[in-house]
Please model this.
Amino acid sequence: MTHCAVGTLRGFLDGELEGERLEAVQRHVADCPHCRAELAALGAGAEWAGGRLGGYARGLNPGAVEAEAAWGRMEAVWGGGAVTPRRPRAVADVGPARPGAPRPRRIWPVASGVAAALALSSLAFSPVRAAAGDVLQIFRVQQVQVVTVSAADVASIEKALQGTGQVDVQGLARVRVTPHGAATTTTLAAARQQVGFPLTAPTALPAGYALSGVRVQPPMQVDFSHLQVAAINRLLASLGSKEGLPAAVGAASIDLSVPSSAVLRYAAAGGPPIEVAETVTPTLSVPAGVDVNAVRHVLLNLPFLPPDLRSQLQSVSDWQNTAVIPQVPGVSQPVRVGGAQGAFVSSPQGGATMLIWLSGGVVRVVRGGLTLPQANAIALSMA
Amino acid sequence: MAHYPGLVRHVAYLVGDRTAAEDVAQEAFLRLMRHPPRAGGDPGAWLRVVGTRLAYNYLRAERRRRAREDSALHDPALLPPAADGWIRGGEAQAVRAALARLQPRDRIALLLRASGRPYAEIAPAIGVRVSSVGTLLARATDRLRREYALEAGEGTGADAVPQATLESEGVRVP
Model:
């Protein structure tokens, strides 16, 4: 591959590339110092322009836009057609300039990856019970526990799952995702105000790295309803389960609330980008009629779970508040970040690494081509 | 009319002039009434798209007019003065003046991108292909940086464009 075109690199920075083009650029940039330097320069330019134009937008003071007067002018131009004018809404509450309306957008892979991993571990093993009320059981992940999974365990689970073919999630439940606004590229100061939790940007980064972009993903609601208990139970039976889910689950609507998240991207001329993602842990709401212990019991008794893994999962104390991170030799290992439990995950192909930890109800991820000591140094600077 | 204040803000952000923005927003509303979008459409989104397009046309017409009237006076000082208190802060003023010296196409692309719009929305607003937006944004960013550095008197300061960036991107310095 020859060097990436400037426009392609800019599209990469703006999250506009997908699929094979995205992968081709990622592969090329990883091996090409020239394009990495170009990318860093473009990132610095984009960050500079974002800051200046954001300041300009906030500096515009539209005052109270006179909708009523404008309506009168328009009526005159319109000349009394068939349109019946409604009273215009009061406009005393016009705030600072914030052009445009939100629009659904793709979220950065790291943010969705973290959310998906947490959602999965919450759903599969560790829904969390906090203050419940009469109607809902509310679950929130408040701690992380690592369970050991050997390579043989992984192989035996894969073998068991291969026999069932494709699992069509669409046929098992209705899943509705409701984003509350669009992902925005913004400045660090604006992101701090938007996310609703203390955003702790790292203060110590490897030499040469500088902030090149900040993206905020607003909160998102994921709603599982119309669970097809019969179909789910057939799937469980095909996996060897002797028990099925209680029928009451079918009438339940299960809500997963994913709070807003922020991704800070740091670029340097000589290395791959480093990303820091932060989000409050998601909350899972289950109607009081659903016996979550029964669901957990069924899942834990799936016969393909290796006995050792099953007993580890069963012994997780306070399982309602715990996210389970599998420890796979050579891929993931438990680590302590300050006083908090976390995990360090490296790609089996080498290169990409991720440090994830949870403290004070906030999940934080440092991702890049870092060694554990490097990632840990960045993490500790966020304390 | 609930969409009117938001539309004026959006257009004012694009054209940098409050009075012009009200005219453009009004024109967008008149088009909405004459040619309403199909039932079920979102009038707010429709208005924003039309308002953006009209803002672009306004900026181009304004630029042609200024060039025609007197090329010797083609100077940012001719920028219509902002109403009292309409724009706050010296930096925002400098950004507004730097934006006024950009081509309308560059200006609209940068402003839409800075407010988080995807390329698929930027491209039709300025009449280019989606595949050209990345290149256009990269070059427009450098031009804005250069104009801003002149405007803010930071020609040799930290905000000056690194020469390497200019050279590697083949930007022509006028």
In short: The first helix of chain B runs from residue 4 to 15. The helical segments of chain B are 4-15, 18-34, 43-69, 90-100, 104-114, 119-126, 133-151, 163-168. Residues 1-86 of chain B form one domain. Chain B has eight helices and no strands.
